Amino acid sequence: MNPQLTALLVDDEKDSTDLLALQLGRHCPQLQILGAENDPEQALSAIIALQPRLLFLDIEMPRLNGFQLLEKLAPFRPAVIFVTAYNQYAIRAFRYNALDYLVKPVLATDLMAAVDKAVAAGAPSDAQLGLVQRQVLGDAITKIAVSTQTGISFISLSEIVYAEASSNYSVFLLENGSRFIVSKTLKEVQDLLEEAHFFRIHRQYIINLNKIKHFDRVDFIITLDNNVQLPVARAQKEKLLARFGKL
């Protein structure tokens, strides 16, 4: 990694930028911190003048929030790591849309991992930014972004048949037979997807409720549209049937 990777910190709370700068100095020597701004409007001028490659950005700021600030930067837009105390649902959504986040107070291990991921991913595209904005504003999630060796694949939730646990990773199985491995546990995937017509039927599986074809109540086996059969944990049977308003 380039040891002269430049970064700027933007947060309306000076204590936050002071602490973050201290942590970055200790744990992320690959960064060159250009400065910190506590006024988002002044931060705009600083970003344009300094053109940092990486931006640590708060969301909730007076007069100009983090998303509004990014919109004003177009077409120049650095890679972004959000540093925020925003609501947990939105924070989880950030991770699946390839815009990293850190929750205050920031842990050193999270900070180092976030820097590495943000640098590898590069600047967020307009499409990525739009997805995150819509989720924070409360719109239904329709896509997730999955990092691959060559870039980022955007997957419609309607294409996912089920997700399967694989140690500390999860595997998405799509309608077309494709498999995508994500570096998230199934619990992390569950936190995001269960708000969007998905349900954890077993410690090993989360299914798309719209892909169910048949449920065997004797053997506790569910058959999906692609004819894959998966076990249903006994404790989850009634919860699953309740989601459909069983007659």
3D architecture notes:
- The protein is α/β, with parallel strands linked by helices.
- It has 2 domains: 5-136, Rossmann fold (3-Layer(aba) Sandwich), CATH 3.40.50.2300; 143-242, LytTr DNA-binding domain (OB fold (Dihydrolipoamide Acetyltransferase, E2P)), CATH 2.40.50.1020.
- Helices cover 33% and strands 30% of the residues.
- It contains 8 helices and 15 strands.
- It has helices at 14-27, 40-50, 66-73, 88-96, 108-121, 126-136, 186-193, 237-242, and strands at residues 5-10, 31-37, 54-57, 79-84, 100-103, 143-147, 152-156, 160-166, 169-174, 179-182, 198-202, 205-208, 212-216, 221-224, 229-231.
- A 5-stranded parallel β-sheet has the order 2-1-3-4-5, with helices on both faces. The chain has a 5-stranded antiparallel β-sheet with strand order 10-9-8-12-11, covered by helices on one side. A 3-stranded antiparallel β-sheet has the order 13-14-15, with no helix packed on it.
- Helix 2 (40-50) runs parallel beside helix 3.
- The protein is elongated.
- The mean pLDDT is 81.
